From TrEMBL:
Key words, A-Z: ATP-binding, DNA damage, DNA recombination, DNA repair, DNA-binding, Helicase, Hydrolase, Isomerase, Nucleotide-binding
NCBIfam families: PRK10917.1-1, PRK10917.1-3, PRK10917.1-4, PRK10917.2-2, recG
Function of the molecule: Plays a critical role in recombination and DNA repair. Helps process Holliday junction intermediates to mature products by catalyzing branch migration. Has replication fork regression activity, unwinds stalled or blocked replication forks to make a HJ that can be resolved. Has a DNA unwinding activity characteristic of a DNA helicase with 3'-5' polarity.
GO molecular function (one): DNA binding
Organism annotation: Exilibacterium tricleocarpae
Protein name: ATP-dependent DNA helicase RecG
Length: 711
């Protein structure tokens, strides 16, 4: 690859001593005043090296470059004022406070201190001249500054005002603003001797209108007094965007590298067997929707090639992803390969097992079943079936990843509801069935639509198919929100609906993670509802039940032997009972929007008009109110996902596991979505021509999260 190394990526080309270490190689302890203790505190801010100090960007800025006449002060602005103390009082109100009247030739204003020492009180005596920095508020005595920072102006020559805007950094206990400002200044000064490697070549920077990194950093730590503060505050300044650009670029490169490594290995080409597909389709009592057909076609094209497929299928709840996965599975089996189908929960896995067995057994395809809760003997028996190749389609939970599970010849992996699996888990699955220089194809299905902006970056390593229509005949779910005070009315509504032969879900939510508490809450609710609704058959479903019990309850509900199913959020995924047309969700304010949408997707699957009642506990927070409004207003999962993104931000939307993988320090996927197209182009150019710059970029931004970049 030596020939790829055109011009070496110049460390601030020229001015840096060739051998001096770069800023990422120098620990913060090299700075004046940083000992072991401070270094430990800085570590809490993620700051270990000089480079980290430079990348620890201000949250906002104060304008301390000019003095405002006191007479011109307005409320709620950050100001610098100068004047003479005219009066000092200790006032005993609700809290004791020290108040100083400060006057210049235009007016007077009050400085108020709730915490003050005797020494401080003495120095702030009448006649003292001060320069104060602070925020004005409307207080008891008119405009006041609470706890301003101040300098004494007792010298004949007052200290000069700052020539730059003053940065406000994210701080942690024991590290003050002042301290961070000093460290940033030191680090900037060292930029000349300890260069910061510029990792985006000048040609690419020009192409994408990006400045040099060092220039951006100098500006951001000390912007000129006329800098556009609003733009800076919003993170939209071109120099901030320069850093966001580079960070997103690093993520993109890392994901592409994973993809490249996978695709460098071959995969078994799976020729399309229309006869097998036709046999599966002939058994269904429905026709595929055009969207299902299109996506199946995209999958067939992928798996037909000798390169591992990496495809994400997005489709709203109920759009019919399972049958599309089954079609792909049939193709793999028809070509003599095994298929692993993995789901995140036992209940969902069981649901898949039922569907796959029902569809595949008539075609003479053998299935196996693997979960973490199986007895050892049973598990061993299944593992043998899998290792020998007798089992052709293996369905299970993440137990499928375990080391003792060896596949005879895995050709395709199907993962459902991928948002619950982290990138790491995906990677470890890829290891499965690797060998003989080949990897299985991968199909990932998610019912949590991922907003386009997120999909582009977080899933850069995946091709994407969207099932963008629901099967015909579905009626949209009508959603209403009622306060918990109307619980009795809602119970009557359940009585009425079930009296008419319909079925209902009653979902109990609990914030606690504890399965035990959730189970208890659901049990209590089930008992209460059963005694209030004596004529109905009430079932109970929660995570603590034995698999056989769960299965029995689900089967009973499905067959109409239960009218009302009281459940925890375990029914969020997969459960499919078309006759259920009413869902009550208790305390919906405790759930995220995506989860609410998932839950609601359990109704509206049959022809009957369906209803969802959100039985909320008042008062609602602003966010909860917005979530509930979104639920009432739309049934469209993609619209919900966009609202969710707006309310919670991308880290949350991608789920906790992935947040760990995709932590962005500077970029904001939503705000910086506009950069992504350029980032992609730039990444492509780099990966082809500058592999070691790519490596350095990944190292710089994801260095402490190495597994992410590795296969
Ligand atoms: P999801 O995309 O949420 O996983 P499923 O695959 O569970 O959806 O499908 C939901 C229900 O719709 C199942 O009962 C399935 O058999 C049925 N279904 C799937 N495709 C169609 C279709 N084209 N027409 C009618 N019903 C369909
Ligand atoms: Mg599904």
């Amino acid at each position: 690859m030596a020939n790829n190394r055109s011009t070496p990526p110049g460390p601030a080309q020229g001015n840096a001593a060739a051998n001096s270490p770069t800023v990422d190689q120098v620990a913060v302890t090299a700075l004046k005043g940083v000992g072991k203790q401070l270094a430990e505190k800085l570590a809490r801010l993620g700051v270990f090296t000089l480079q980290d100090i430079l990348f620890h960007l201000p949250l906002r800025y104060l304008d301390r470059t000019r003095v405002t006449p006191i007479g011109a002060l307005q409320a709620n602005v950050s100001v610098v004022i100068e004047g003479e103390i005219k009066a000092v009082d200790v006032v005993y109100g609700r809290r004791r406070s020290l108040m100083c009247r400060l006057q210049d030739h235009t007016g007077t204003v009050t400085l108020r201190f709730y915490h003050f020492s005797g020494a401080q009180q003495q120095r702030l005596s009448q006649g003292t001249r001060l320069r104060c920095y602070g925020e004005t508020r409307r207080g008891a005595s008119g405009l006041e500054l609470y706890h301003p920072e101040y300098d004494f102006l007792d010298q004949a020559q007052p200290p000069p005002l700052s020539a730059h805007l003053t940065p406000i950094y994210p701080v942690t206990e024991g590290v003050t603003q002042q301290r961070l400002r000093g460290l940033a200044q030191q680090a900037l000064a060292l930029l000349d001797s300890h260069s910061l490697r510029e990792l985006i070549p000048a040609t690419l920077r020009r192409l994408h209108n990006q400045v040099a990194l060092a220039e951006a950093l100098r500006y951001l730590h000390q912007p000129p007094r006329d800098a556009p503060v609003t733009e800076l505050l919003e993170g939209r300044h071109p120099y901030q965007q320069r850093l966001a650009f580079e960070e997103l670029l690093a993520h993109q490169l890392s994901l592409w590298r994973v993809r490249q490594q996978i695709q460098a290995e071959g995969a078994p080409p799976l020729a399309t067997r229309d006869d097998m597909a036709a046999r599966l389709l002939a058994q269904l009592d429905f026709e595929l929707t055009p969207a299902q057909q299109r996506v199946a076609g995209e999958i067939y094209a992928d798996i037909g090639r000798p390169v591992p497929m990496l495809r994400l299928v997005q489709g709203d709840v109920g759009s019919g992803k399972t049958v599309v996965a089954a079609l792909a599975a049939v193709q793999a089996v028809a070509n003599g390969y095994q298929v692993a189908v993995m789901a995140p929960t036992e209940i969902l896995a069981e649901q898949h097992r039922r569907s796959f067995e029902q569809w595949l057994q008539p075609l003479g395809i053998d299935t196996a079943w693997l979960t973490g809760r199986q007895k050892v003997a049973q598990r061993r028996e299944q593992a043998e079936q899998i290792a020998s190749g007798r089992a052709q389609v293996i369905i299970g939970t993440h137990a499928l990843f375990q080391n003792d599970v060896v596949f005879a010849d895995l050709g395709l992996i199907v993962i459902d509801e991928q948002h619950r699996f982290g990138v790491h888990q995906r990677l470890s699955l890829r290891e499965k069935g690797a060998g003989r220089g080949r990897r299985p194809h991968q199909l990932i299905m998610t019912a949590t639509p991922i907003p386009r902006t997120l999909a582009m970056s977080a899933y850069a390593d995946l091709d994407c198919s969207v099932i963008d229509e629901l099967p015909p005949g579905r009626t949209p779910v009508t959603t209403v929100a009622l306060a918990a005070t109307r619980r009795d009315q809602v119970i009557e509504r359940v009585r009425h609906a079930c009296g008419e032969g319909r079925q209902a879900y009653w979902v109990c939510t609990l914030i606690e993670e504890s399965e035990v508490l959730q189970a208890q809450a659901a049990e209590a609710t089930a008992q209460e509802l059963q005694s209030g609704l004596a004529e109905l058959r009430v079932g109970l479903l929660h995570g603590r039940l034995k698999p056989a019990e769960k299965e029995a309850t689900m089967a009973a509900f499905k067959e109409g032997q239960l009218d009302l199913l009281v459940a925890t959020t375990v029914i969020e995924v997969g459960v499919d009972v078309p006759n259920a047309s009413l869902m009550i969700i208790e305390n919906p304010e405790r759930l995220g929007l995506a989860q609410l949408h998932q839950l609601r997707g359990r109704v509206g699957r049959g022809a009957a008009a369906s209803h969802c009642v959100l039985l909320y506990g008042a008062p609602l927070s602003q966010h909860s109110r917005e979530r509930i409004r979104a639920m009432r207003e739309t049934n469209d999962g993609f619209a919900i996902a966009e609202i969710d993104l707006r309310l919670r931000g991308p880290g949350e939307v991608l789920g906790t596991r992935q947040t760990g993988d995709m932590q962005l320090r500077i970029a904001d996927l939503q705000r910086d979505a506009g950069l992504l197209a350029d980032v992609k182009r730039c990444a492509r150019a780099l990966i082809e021509t500058e592999p070691d710059l790519s490596t350095a970029l990944i190292q710089r931004w994801l260095g402490r999260n190495q597994d992410y970049a590795k296969v």
